[in-house]
What we know:
The protein is mainly α. Among the domains are: 16-99; 109-244. It contains 14 helices and 2 strands, in the order ββαααααααααααααα. It has helices at 16-43, 45-48, 51-72, 77-97, 105-140, 151-162, 168-177, 189-216, 219-244, 247-253, 270-278, 285-331, 336-341, 362-377, and strands at 4-5, 12-13. Strands 1-2 form a two-stranded antiparallel ribbon. Helix 5 runs antiparallel to helix 8 (189-216). The radius of gyration is 40 Å and the shape is flat. Its main location: membrane.
Amino acid sequence: TSITMDEEGDELVGTPVMYTCSTAIVMYVLVNMVREGLQLYQQHWQYLLDPTNLVSWMLYISTIIMILPVYHGNVNELQVSCASITVFLSWFTLLLNLQRFDMVGIYVVMFLEILQTLIKVLVVFSILIIAFGLAFYILLSRGEHLSFKTVPMSLVRTFSMMLGEIDFLGTYVQPYYLKDEEGRTLPFPIPAFLILALFMVFMPILLMNLLIGLAVGDIESVRRNAQLKRLAMQVVLHTELERKLPQVLLEKVDKMELIEYPNDKCKLGFFDQMLRKWLCNPFSDDGLEMVLENNEDYVSEEIDKMKLKLRNITKALDTQQQLLRLIVQKMEIKTEADELDEGVSPKELQPMPGVGSKWTSPRVRNKLRTALSFSKAHPPK
Length: 381
């Protein structure tokens, strides 16, 4: 699309192609905004907890502001700024959409997991950035250093110094020994070098190594969690699609049974093979093998824990059994097992006809049998 500006450079003259493309973009943005509004109505507060929804709304609003000069012709700094934001968020949204696909989605999820960890750590250690930034502002703002002229610029400069861009020669050495052409000086050299030494120890050495260790130290667990999270996202996506689609369409698409012939070889073209390789089923054999491989250590650890618990339970039962035997021997209690050992046959343990099942002791049954035989020998007159 060709864009022509007038001599002043603040008016834009559009072409029919520009109007067509702008109208298509506006229609697409409006449709997506309606879709996001429906999701907000369905999910309520859960919709606001997802950061990707905020990214989508920022993208739509910046796109609308960017397209406005095509219709009214005036271009200002706001439209240019929104254009840069729109380009960045468009490609970033493309990266977020790739996390649901196989092969490449796991790396996107890992990137987002590590990003969350780094943001948490930076929020905590931003206290050090503010501390050193204010210290450098007090010491160097009077020396005509443009990067430390204001407090915000001093904080940004301190953050860049944390990444290794200290500029030791131009900021500290030359102003200390020589007065350069820009008039930069070092009004307070001793405190400046002392704060700089503490900064080099705390920020580039300690903090940066801590961030790198957090990013790559636990990469295997992040990889396992990323694979499971990606599969969970696919399940949620399919569930939401089924909930939003009409029931008539679902009845035509859903199949109660599916017959497959594994011996029939299907010939696929190059394009079909690439699609199957990159956009295959999330629950394919490769995906499941990766999940099982990643979870092998976790399952083995859980099995070892269960075995240890069973051994502890067995030891506790043996100890209790020994204690019960000692108690019985101490109290001289005779049980049915002891009477069996004294010579009572197992037949005598069977219940007698006409006698309740609660009389199960051999001694009680012997007394009952003696009483019955006596009553039969001496009937009442």
